[in-house]
Amino acid sequence: MEDLYLYNQVKNLKPEELFHPCDSYILKWKPPGSYYQLIVPLSDVRIQESVILEIAKLSWLRPAKIIFHFVPILATIQMFAVKTHPASLVTFQSKNSVLKKLADLFLEGRISITELQQIFTNDFEIWKVALYNLLPVDWQPYHEYLNTPPPPVVTERDIEKSYLNEDITLKQYEEFKYPERKELNEIKSLQYPLVGQFVTCIICGEPNMGIVPCQNCDNMACVKCVQKTFLDESNHEKGSFMLMHHKYCLRLGSLKPIALEIQIEPAYLR
């Protein structure tokens, strides 16, 4: 038998569908007089030949009643693969990929040698725009980045010109020319204590109230719960804040009190 013969025959029955690799499918069949189903891998030609030889031994009526079920090897796999456009599987971000695609279009006869030379005399941005225009219409939506101009590069001379034209202030010009001064001024302008990040309290579950971090994990508790649980003298469950992770983060409950037992050894045993 030819390799993947049965697999290719099944694919020809559904040319509009996208199939998984051959190893993802099997044939299930039940031999006459058997209580069990047998599995035939589509990638193993020897097992397929043995099944054909076994069927040939049967009478001419019995093979007509045998049904083979074409199913995926795993129940979690769908019968057919998800259809994807070929354009979504490639990208032309680098200069080498754009150059290779332009060369392929030249070999396919989509572009002449004169047009190719004109494209190569320009910079990389013209290469990308030319490639975008040469792509098929159904490919272009997947490669809109080729037709998008790069962000303009702002130089020091442009900033000086903007300042002379009174488009920016002196402070903005200074921040661009001396970025280390800008960073230092931002640090000095901060007011301490800094505003913390509030999360859900691990004790009461109130959202956007947790501010006191646990010492063992990323959970936080609100100030009210910390005062009530660990600092309030009237609370009978008052305990050390170090037990917060054990009791509330791990949900293990309160620890049992530890009783110290001191045994005095009798003198006659010393």
Keywords:
270 residues; mainly alpha; three-stranded antiparallel sheet; two-stranded antiparallel ribbon; 10 helices; 36% helix; flat
Structure description:
This protein is mainly α. The chain folds into 4 domains: 5-72, no CATH class; 86-147, no CATH class; 156-189, no CATH class; 195-254, no CATH class. The chain is built from 10 helices and 5 strands; from the N terminus they run αββαβααααααββαα. A hairpin with an 8-residue loop joins strand 1 and strand 2 (38-41). Helix 3 packs across helix 5 (124-134) and helix 6 packs antiparallel against helix 7. The longest helix has 13 residues, at 95-107. The protein is flat, with a radius of gyration of 37 Å. The mean pLDDT is 82.
Give the terminus-to-terminus CA distance: 91 Å
Q: How many beta-strand segments?
A: 5
Structural class estimated from helices and strands: mainly alpha
- Portion in beta strands: 5-15%
The largest beta-sheet arranges its strands as: 2-1-3
Average of the residue pLDDT scores? 82
SSE pattern, N- to C-terminal:
HEEHEHHHHHHEEHH
Q: Which percent bin holds the helix content? A: 25-40%
What is the alpha-carbon Rg in Å?
37 Å
What is the total number of structural domains?
A: 4
Count of DSSP helices?
10
Q: Rough shape?
A: flat
Largest sheet: 3 strands, antiparallel
Which regions are unreliable across 5 or more consecutive residues at pLDDT < 50? none
Layout: helices, strands, pairs:
Layout lengths: L4 H9 L11 E5 L8 E4 L3 H12 L12 E4 L22 H13 L5 H8 L3 H11 L21 H9 L5 H8 L1 H11 L22 E2 L6 E2 L1 H9 L12 H6 L21
Antiparallel strand pairs: 1-2, 1-3, 4-5
